[in-house]
């Protein structure tokens, strides 16, 4: 893949990952003796077109300074915020916009993203001259649920109806947009107290176009304890395929 541009990526990593039920933030859990955050950040930095990564960390983060990432010359640390969108915005404010007119945002807990999918995202966004996200088409039958009165915990619901799955996609990361457009879109959405779940949602509120770029289902987000073993399987498989 050829491009005269170089890119910067933002990795929001200020969360604590309560659903992992771990004694440290999930991005610092280890797979093959490396933290999830290290796997993720180095996967990005090892891409030939990504020259820097901005990591947004919690102000009370006690783990990053002890990691191999702390003194890497191409990693910039910024303070994260109370929500993911606040961390991303802090990262955007640290971007040299003249040097990096485009920015990628990637979840800290997605260490299995492939360089091939990043290539596809960059190529299609540059070709169309607007941003987009990696995504996978929904394959399963989708149900809309309503809360069950007997279940206050929210881990089960009553089926309300079946939702047509055609043209439904699972949103993944990286999500790639023009740096100025994404910054303005997020700032505007926050000013209007809109809920921003990912970068694409801010772009949607700004009425800007956004691509869906089909990606590998191996690009999982580590959220629950059993995701850790699956991520380890995919990482080992990808390593073996490149050897």
UniProtKB/TrEMBL annotation:
<dbReference type="InterPro" id="IPR034683">
    <property type="entry name" value="IspD/TarI"/>
</dbReference>
<keyword id="KW-0808">Transferase</keyword>
<protein>
    <recommendedName>
        <fullName>2-C-methyl-D-erythritol 4-phosphate cytidylyltransferase</fullName>
        <ecNumber>2.7.7.60</ecNumber>
    </recommendedName>
</protein>
<dbReference type="InterPro" id="IPR018294">
    <property type="entry name" value="ISPD_synthase_CS"/>
</dbReference>
<dbReference type="InterPro" id="IPR001228">
    <property type="entry name" value="IspD"/>
</dbReference>
<dbReference type="GO" id="GO:0050518">
    <property type="term" value="F:2-C-methyl-D-erythritol 4-phosphate cytidylyltransferase activity"/>
</dbReference>
<keyword id="KW-0414">Isoprene biosynthesis</keyword>
<feature type="site" description="Positions MEP for the nucleophilic attack">
    <location>
        <position position="165"/>
    </location>
</feature>
<feature type="site" description="Transition state stabilizer">
    <location>
        <position position="26"/>
    </location>
</feature>
<keyword id="KW-0548">Nucleotidyltransferase</keyword>
<feature type="site" description="Positions MEP for the nucleophilic attack">
    <location>
        <position position="221"/>
    </location>
</feature>
<dbReference type="Pfam" id="PF01128">
    <property type="entry name" value="IspD"/>
</dbReference>
<dbReference type="InterPro" id="IPR029044">
    <property type="entry name" value="Nucleotide-diphossugar_trans"/>
</dbReference>
<dbReference type="GO" id="GO:0019288">
    <property type="term" value="P:isopentenyl diphosphate biosynthetic process, methylerythritol 4-phosphate pathway"/>
</dbReference>
<dbReference type="InterPro" id="IPR050088">
    <property type="entry name" value="IspD/TarI_cytidylyltransf_bact"/>
</dbReference>
<feature type="site" description="Transition state stabilizer">
    <location>
        <position position="19"/>
    </location>
</feature>
<comment type="similarity">
    <text>Belongs to the IspD/TarI cytidylyltransferase family. IspD subfamily.</text>
</comment>
<comment type="pathway">
    <text>Isoprenoid biosynthesis; isopentenyl diphosphate biosynthesis via DXP pathway; isopentenyl diphosphate from 1-deoxy-D-xylulose 5-phosphate: step 2/6.</text>
</comment>
<comment type="function">
    <text>Catalyzes the formation of 4-diphosphocytidyl-2-C-methyl-D-erythritol from CTP and 2-C-methyl-D-erythritol 4-phosphate (MEP).</text>
</comment>
